[in-house]
Amino acid sequence: LETGEFLTHVAVFLEDTLKNIYLINMIIGLLSAIVDNVPLVAGAMGMYSMTEFPPDHIFWSLLAYCAGTGGSVLIIGSAAGVAMMGILKIDFIWYLKRISLLALIGYLAGMAAYMIQHIWT
Question: N or C: which terminus of the chain has fewer CB atoms within 10 Å of its end residue's CB?
């Protein structure tokens, strides 16, 4: 994906469309509920250069939070969720009805706390 410049095109699309690192990372985090977060973060690392966002830029720590936590919105979005499905015999619909909204609220509350910390400091 990186060699074919697909990730660069995705990065340009997100930048041109959203123009906000908080929204970009929020979208990436919600995608991690569907796509495994490890390749998603690896892909995001290929989408953005270290000159655009240096290693200590808030983009990277926010990406880590969003990709890691956003995966919990759906049970299939994290390895722990998939393991829980097998061990406790929880199905996708049960999780969707009872847990997904709570996980989404927690995810968005964490994003809000992160933004408050970094915008007003």
Answer: C
